[in-house]
Amino acid sequence: MGAYFVRPGDTAMIGRLPHCDICLMHEGVSRRHALVSSRGGQWFITDQASSGGTFINGVKLVPHEPVPVSEGDLARISAWTFRVCIGEDAPAGMGTVDDAAAPHQRISKISSEGHTTLAGKRLRLLTQCISKLGGTSDKPSIINAVLDAVLQGTGYARAAVLCLERDAAEVKVLGSRQTRNASGAPNTFSRSLIQAAAAGQSCVLSEMQGQVSSNSICEMEIHSAVCVPVMIGGTAAVFIYLDARASEQGVERDAAEFCEAVASVLMMAWGNLQRAELERRQSELTAELDAAREVQQTVMPSPVGRTGCVEYAVVSRPGVFVAGDFFDIIDLGAGRVAVCLGDVAGHGAGSGMLMALTQAHLSALLRTTGSLEAAVAGLNMYLCSYALSGRFASLWVGVFESDGTLRYIDAGHGHWFVRMPDGSVGEDAGACGVPVGIDDQSPFPERRLQLPVGARVVLFSDGVAEQRDPNADQFGVARIRAACDGSELASEAARIFTHLEAFAGRPSLDDDATAAIVAVRGE
């Protein structure tokens, strides 16, 4: 077909429509099959949800997910295969000699039909198995390819791929197959054989003086069986299990050795599949965490500020597993300012969304009811009405008044203390209720404190107090108190996290961590 050129910054659509940049007139090609594009110096091919699929080096692409391509990659679309060449000066290949007209020479095609040796047959089976495993990315297809190979190459009548449920007493059949002349399904397996293979060594079970040790094996008239472990990371992840029964004959003497060769191929394919699955999960987790972090940053107020009679500073760091910390400060008018800090149970984007919902609903209730108890009770009823399994929030919410009065409710939070202007620290008031979202009949009593100008209320989430160091010790409240030295608010809040990261021994934290310092400034 010759060569097609796509310039950097341009795109090329491959498909069956006449106006496509590369038109392939064939029923196996979709109207808009695949797109070639470039970005940032990297070239990509994206399958456009084609019916026949787009393949790069034999691997089928996921629709609408751009896949980077490199020099020499083979892109297959229906009956066509394109070799990727990048750059004006693509490396030249080795030349060939035109010897078509050379005398006394003949080219013949080799056919193995009718005279294939056992070794040649097995080599072909192993090669076919490798080819199939390289072109598939799902466990059922991998298992089927393995079963085909071992049945054809060993002489056994039935085969299965197994994994242990808890121990050799119970196995899970991932796939099974039998030949046409097999006398029964592969539904009985030797426990002792599997136990022996679980140690990492291929094992064979055979009759000894016409008897076998297991009644169930005897009843099934199994006279030969082999179990080969597939080792992943030093552990027998799955097993290839074969047996022959009754009058079934033709089992090859070296069947176990061939199974070991197939097991080696399966080990590579299974390991790659496991890695791909892990990468997929990690990608999904990263997407969820990013979404949750975005929610947190959207609803969080500015790091420092003054509202009415209080001044504040807050620092919030997302953890490895994002939960749902939230902090808010609301001017209620008439010299009153509401401050709340909460933590939604759970992790990921779901908790992040619930955190935003909780914060928004609480803010609306505080503004409309004018009552601290009514607002928290209303929030509790609202969350309980959704009956979200395992979803609740611990909450501290207080209303500061210009005369120094602090009215507060601690709903299962308990992580806070008051630092007086002289540096003394008051006793922890402790939680005075259960978290919101658990029991719609829970009471949330309001408490009061009288604070002088200059007093500071230090609020923090459990991600600060419960952060662990390499020895699994918790950061604790005492270290938080030690970090509060009465300096400028933003510096004091930042100092808590400087001490926290030094304690953890790393910049990443186990959980969301939020610390807020609210200072009473009066009128």
Question: Which structural traits does this protein have?
Answer:
523 residues; alpha+beta; Tumour Suppressor Smad4; Beta-Lactamase; Phosphatase 2c, domain 1; five-stranded mixed beta sheet; five-stranded antiparallel beta sheet; 24 strands; 29% helix
Compact overview of the structure:
This protein is an alpha+beta fold.
The appropriate CATH architecture of the largest domain is: 4-Layer Sandwich
Here the CATH topology of the largest domain equals Phosphatase 2c, domain 1
Q: Low-confidence parts lasting 5 or more residues at pLDDT below 50?
A: 90-97, 104-115, 208-216
Number of DSSP strand runs = 24
Shape: elongated
Give the rounded overall mean pLDDT: 80
Q: Could you tell me the strand content as a percent range?
A: 25-35%
CATH superfamily of the largest domain: PPM-type phosphatase domain
Binned, the helix content reads: 25-40%
What class would the helix/strand composition place it in?
alpha+beta
**Total individual domains:** 3
Strand order of the largest sheet: 2-1-3-4-7
By CATH reckoning, the class of the largest domain would read Alpha Beta
